[in-house]
Design a protein that fits this description.
The complex is a heterodimer of chains A (585) and B (186). Chain A is an alpha/beta fold and 585 residues long. Chain A has 24 helices and 20 strands. Chain B is built from four helices and nine strands. The longest helix of chain B has 13 residues. Classes of the chains: A alpha/beta (585), B alpha+beta (186). Chain A: Keywords: Amino-acid biosynthesis, Branched-chain amino acid biosynthesis, Magnesium, Metal-binding, Thiamine pyrophosphate, Transferase.
């Protein structure tokens, strides 16, 4: 006999059955019955954000730092539309989110009712799947399906739109184990023949490289362990996308740095010149490939991915392997060991000699100053003073500071680096740091930010104060939209159209107004002490680091160019991008 | 290297039935998409085509399995081989999609479309229209002293040909269902 309960209670019951302990949300008319249950049950921790976009990014931070799905609860109409950016962000970066939205009662749908929006229509292209629930008897089944779909296969955001009358009405509660999980069961195990083909290539390759992405981290800690074993035993170099940082430790001897538009010289040249590219859970994003026709022209390409639509979407690969990254790596290492753990060791040694020559270029060096803080220096010091913290988490906003953070901070473990990669969402970092700190109360959570991005969701400072979340807002303040300015310098004749920050707030006073601590620093000599003050302060901090205003983020593959045509230093930026490259973003 | 001699299957289950994706000639393919007949499923499929810039030449949809609530969507689309493969795997990724069959590459198939064609005229034109309809094995489903409505089933090319012949004879309206297709044999 199925248990009877109201739709609102079903929501709470299903969340509890799914092991959810935290929800990020904002109440409103169409979700009041669910908020009433939260009030009565007291079993779910609700984090009241200041804006629904903040709720989605906080849930993303929570999900990416724990591996569990993030849960969002918002109201109809503007509540749902405000959550759209966060869902799109989660879709592009494969973050599991379950978003619950209130909706006007079923009998008013379509009447342009107050706070009515076609939420499932609006969010269809920015979710992995979504539902409008019109019958309370269907609700709990759909809730369980939602968690299944969000977390299985390639993870992503799902949305359930629940009309208010469905929340009030009573119906049968379907238990988690009785839910119809559809036919949705992406294959995890890779094809043996294809994996054997990969192993054969590994045995003979002269210039191999592992190119890893966020899929390794999404696959889980075991996948990262298997990857590390494979790298250690094969002696192959490894690079990673922005999303995959931490799957292989930055201190590891085979690590050649991040690749792509702002990747290292050695990583990009290794990709360009390799004869075997093993793509593990990455998707040949345009930030990675540069111009397609010139991308790694002489390599055999292997691609391991759980999403068939990622394979051969951008780059034609020679060996496609469909499956879960961790499972496939386990299969690959087993076959490779069984065949004698062979590689072309002599050739790989020569390959390393070449890579080490590229490394010697020291592409991340920059001109130091004793008068003004260089953003790179600020991050080098932040790294030096925080890297030994056992529980350090970094989030970022989007722009130059984000790329510098990826270049100058080292990640030893997965799930320690939360950044908006695919969508490039300014305003992501502060709310994401909220979600990370909620999940890791003892963690040192630092949001590396630019002042312009940070202002986009600065209201979430209030959330930090309310829940005593001691996040550190590390703002590299150049009073510019730094990346926009850099592109205007390179592409638009230094015509800096609208790319500076005027009328900035006093960040120290702003911190105090929100009930946190503000620190401003402008002299390189004071930097270390200021960073230590930030770390040791028990509470949220806004760290206003005044940095060089016109520093360019380098190295850089100019748009329209190949990996072996990187700009290395500021002296070589003139006319770096031609007309064909200028049309690309 | 050509290491993969893997069994071909429907694209939803396997990434290995890749035909050469390097050609850049535009091809026309007929896809049969089996979906849960649930609210919004057609919007999902159509939205995928418009959102990713794919073409739809023809589209038909109806529930075909009432007990399991499955609908069959038949789409005729055009694109380079790599685009066609991408369309299939993007469709396969939609949660309510059970299977995607590319009838153009999965062996012989039959395609049919139904059209109703209204022709208005008197005298010789009227006689000629009726005579031509017999050649095409069209049925007259409505007639007045000055008009016919012909019902014609066949390939899209056959319907095109008939419509062109009717044009000078007083064609005023055409309704077409779009293509329904199914594989031949068991």
């Amino acid at each position: 006999m199925a248990q009877q309960m109201t739709g609102a209670k079903m929501v709470i019951q299903a969340l509890l059955d799914q092991g959810v302990d935290t929800v990020f949300g904002y109440p409103g008319g169409a979700v009041l019955p669910i908020y009433d249950e939260i009030f009565k049950e007291k079993k779910i921790r609700h984090i009241l954000v200041r804006h629904e976009q903040g709720a989605t990014h906080a849930a993303e931070g929570y999900a990416r730092s724990t591996g569990k799905p993030g849960v969002v609860l918002v109201t109809s109409g503007p509540g749902a539309t405000n959550a759209v950016t966060g869902m799109t962000d989660a879709l592009l970066d494969s973050v599991p989110l379950v978003v619950l939205t209130g909706q006007v009662p079923t009998f008013m749908i379509g009447s342009d009712a107050f706070q009515e929006a076609d939420t499932v229509g609006i969010t269809r292209p920015c979710t992995k799947h979504n539902w409008l629930v019109k019958d309370t008897n269907e609700l709990s089944d759909i809730l369980h399906q939602a968690f299944h779909i969000a977390t299985n296969g390639r993870p992503g955001p799902v949305l359930i739109d629940i009309p208010k009358d469905v929340q009030f009405a009573s119906g049968d509660y379907t238990k988690k184990d009785d839910a119809r999980l559809h036919h949705y069961a992406p294959a995890k195990v890779g094809d043996e023949a294809a994996i054997t083909a990969l192993v054969e290539l590994m045995e003979t390759a002269q210039k191999p490289v592992f190119y890893t992405g966020g899929g390794v981290i999404n696959s889980g800690v075991e996948a990262c362990e298997t990857l590390r074993a494979l790298v250690r035993e094969t002696n192959f170099p490894i690079t990673s996308t922005l999303m995959g940082l931490g799957s292989y430790p930055a201190s590891g001897e085979h690590w050649i740095g991040m690749l792509g538009m702002h990747g290292t010289y050695e990583a990009n040249l290794t990709m360009h010149d390799c004869d075997l590219m093993i793509n593990i859970g990455a998707r040949f994003d345009d930030r990675i490939t540069g111009v397609i026709d010139k991308f790694s022209p002489n390599s055999e390409k292997v691609h391991i991915d759980i999403d068939p639509s990622s394979i051969n979407k951008v780059i034609h690969v020679d060996v496609p392997i469909l499956g879960d990254v961790g499972t496939v790596l386990e299969q690959a290492i087993t076959i490779w060991r069984a065949r004698g753990s062979r590689t072309n060791a002599t050739a790989v040694k020569t390959w390393w000699d070449q890579i080490n020559k590229w490394r010697a270029v020291k592409c991340l060096s920059y001109e130091q100053s004793d008068k003004i803080i260089k953003p790179q220096y600020a991050l080098e010091r932040l790294e030096a003073l925080t890297k030994d913290h056992p529980n350090r988490f970094i989030t970022t906003e989007v722009g130059q500071h984000q790329m510098w953070a990826a270049q100058y901070l080292g990640f030893e473990d997965p799930k320690r680096w939360m950044t908006s990669g695919g969508l490039g969402t300014m305003g992501y970092g502060l709310p994401a740091s909220v979600g990370v700190q909620v999940a890791h109360p003892d963690g040192l959570v630092i949001n590396v930010a630019g002042e312009a991005s940070w202002l986009m969701n600065m209201q979430e400072m209030g959330t930090c104060t309310q829940y005593n979340l001691p996040t550190k807002q590390f703002i590299l303040n150049n009073e510019r939209l730094g990346m926009v300015r850099q592109w205007q310098e390179l592409l638009h004749g230094e015509r800096y159209s609208q790319s500076w920050s005027e009328a900035l707030p006093d960040f120290v006073k702003l911190a105090e107004a929100f009930g946190g601590k503000g620190i401003q620093v402008s002299d390189p000599a004071d930097l270390d002490e200021a960073i230590m003050e930030m770390i040791t302060y028990d509470g949220p901090v806004i760290f206003d680091c005044l940095v060089e205003k016109h520093e360019n983020c380098l190295p850089m593959i100019p748009s329209g160019k190949a990996h072996n045509q990187m700009i290395l230093s500021s002296s070589s930026t003139k006319d770096a991008i031609d007309a064909d490259g200028a049309v690309m973003v | 290297m050509n290491a993969l001699h893997l069994k071909k299957g429907s694209s939803r289950k396997s990434a290995y039935n890749l035909r050469s994706t390097l050609g850049d000639a535009i091809e026309t393919h007929t896809l049969a998409i089996l979906v849960d007949n649930e609210v919004g499923v057609l919007a999902r499929v159509i939205g995928l085509f418009s959102g990713r810039g794919y073409n739809i030449e023809s589209l038909t949809v109806a529930e075909t399995n009432h007990t399991e609530g499955l609908s069959r969507i038949t789409v005729v689309t055009t694109g380079t081989p790599s685009i066609i493969e991408q369309i299939k795997s993007q469709l396969g990724r939609l949660v309510p999609v059970h299977d995607v069959h590319d009838l153009t590459v999965e062996g012989p198939s039959v395609e049919r479309e139904l059209a109703m064609i209204k022709v208005v005229g008197k005298g010789d034109n009227r006689v000629e229209a009726l005579r031509t309809s017999e050649v095409f094995r069209a049925n007259v489903v409505d007639s007045t002293l000055e008009s016919f409505v012909f019902e014609l089933t066949g390939t899209p090319e056959k319907i095109d040909a008939f419509v062109e012949l009717m044009r000078p004879l007083g064609l005023i309206d055409v309704a077409r269902t779009g293509v329904a297709a199914i594989s031949r044999g068991g």
